[in-house]
Design goal:
By secondary structure, the protein is α+β, with helices and mostly antiparallel strands. Helices cover 44% and strands 21% of the residues. The protein has a domain of 207 residues: 2-Layer Sandwich (Ribosomal Protein S5, domain 2), CATH 3.30.230. The radius of gyration is 21 Å and the shape is globular. The structure holds alpha-D-galactopyranose (GLA).
Length: 393
């Protein structure tokens, strides 16, 4: 569905339900990540970008204190008074939103009720951060409509806090940041320690970005993700103990790690080895991208995949298959799993014009092996969360 159609259908749905035009329309994008996986919570750097897949919000303020949230795609509605004590519910989509409101209430903001309909073109559970788009889009809506004066950075941090507290995933900041700060044709090099960021042109020369959705929903993500966080924290404390000057993974060398191989034990060593090398790879990838050395960027992506699969162990058989299949296709210059893992999408740099042929070939092989239909998304690097200008009829 195009952006235009998404806006039209969300607006129509709002009118049908609330018998009125929405006051405003907002778009909140999903994200890709070129490289820098699982290191946003490890003091690393990441290289994400917002994409042209969105959650659209049609909204109006009401004159009472009741919020009516309508998830158009799920055909579900949730009503509540925002002044009540907010607690996580058994509906996940509601929790993302309540978590944001909870954060605002903690900051003593005063609101009013709202009518909100939202609908999405970001596939769920595919690793494209539909959750960050939902949290941050909602935060952005409230900020604009109630003039809360929050910065984009605060909105991203509130989204992340919502996920920690109401959803239970101890995520890093990458997804929220990319969704809110995205710019057309730019990837964001984000320093996850300071949140300093710079934009780099996403000029991939003769290659385009092809996302392959394994259709394996990442149901183990929450537990697997949180376990990884505990493991690297443990690893870092062992490193710090031996080398007090190493306060973050950024300052840790491979030699230091190797010296600690025994004390870390096999699992922690692997996790930490991945982190240290992934931080290096992001810096090398940015250097390569700026020099339009796409072959180097692609090679780093393959290395990242190997690390995620064998050392960090967050991939799965199906996504490994997709990456391995493309290794021998000469029109593909880079491929790796993307996002939290345990399913979801692979991100691939493929020669423009070959997408169709390659997709046919790989989807057939994938179906033969797993009996699962492969999906693909051709995405463009786009701007971050925004309010649409009202058309004057
Ligand atoms: C999920 C999290 C992010 C990041 C990625 C892995 O998408 O929300 O913070 O850690 O996984 O890079």
């Amino acid at each position: 569905m195009t952006k235009k159609k998404l806006i039209a259908s969300t607006t129509e749905h709002f009118k049908t339900i609330f018998q009125n035009e929405p006051e405003a329309i907002f778009l909140s994008p999903g994200r890709i990540n070129l490289i820098g996986e699982h290191i946003d919570y490890n003091d690393g750097f990441v290289l994400p970008a917002a994409i042209n897949k969105y959650i659209c919000f049609a909204v109006s303020i009401t004159f009472d204190n009741e919020f009516t949230l309508v998830a158009q795609d799920l055909n579900e509605t949730y009503r509540f008074d925002w002044r009540e004590a907010l607690k996580p519910t058994d509906k996940m989509w509601v929790n993302y939103l309540l978590g944001v409101l909870h954060q605002l209430k903690e900051r003593n903001f005063s609101l009013k009720g709202m009518h909100i309909v939202f609908s999405s073109t970001i596939p769920m559970g595919a690793g494209l951060s539909s959750s960050a788009a939902l949290e941050c889009g909602f935060g952005y809506v409230l900020n604009k409509q109630f003039n809360l004066g929050l910065s984009r950075q605060e909105i991203a941090l509130i989204g992340q806090q919502s996920e920690h507290t109401f959803v239970g995933v101890k995520c890093g900041i990458m997804d929220q940041f990319a969704s809110v700060f995205g710019k057309k044709n730019k990837v964001i090099k984000l320093d996850c320690t300071t949140l300093a960021h710079e934009y780099h042109t996403a000029d991939l020369k003769k290659y385009s970005i092809l996302l392959l959705d394994s259709n394996v929903k990442h149901t183990h993500l929450t537990s697997g993700y949180n376990t990884r966080r505990e493991e690297v924290e443990k690893g870092l404390s062992i490193i710090k103990n031996r080398f007090p000057s190493v306060t973050t993974f950024r300052a840790c060398t491979e030699e230091q790690l190797n010296e600690l191989k025994n004390s870390l034990g096999e699992t922690l060593y692997k996790r930490c080895h991945f982190v240290v090398n992934e931080i290096r790879r992001v810096n090398e990838a940015v250097y390569a991208l700026d020099r339009k050395n796409i072959a180097k960027l692609g090679q780093l992506m393959y290395e990242t995949h190997d690390g995620l699969s064998k050392e960090y162990e967050v991939s799965c058989e199906e996504v490994d298959f997709l990456v391995d299949f493309f290794r021998t296709e000469k029109q593909v210059i880079g491929s790796r799993m993307m996002g939290g893992g345990f399913g979801g999408c692979s991100i691939n740099l493929v020669e423009k014009g070959c997408e169709e042929t390659l997709f046919k070939k790989i989807s057939q092989a994938y179906f033969e092996k797993f009996g699962i239909q492969l999906n693909r998304y051709k995405v463009k690097v786009s701007k971050g969360t925004s309010k649409m200008k009202k058309k004057i009829n």
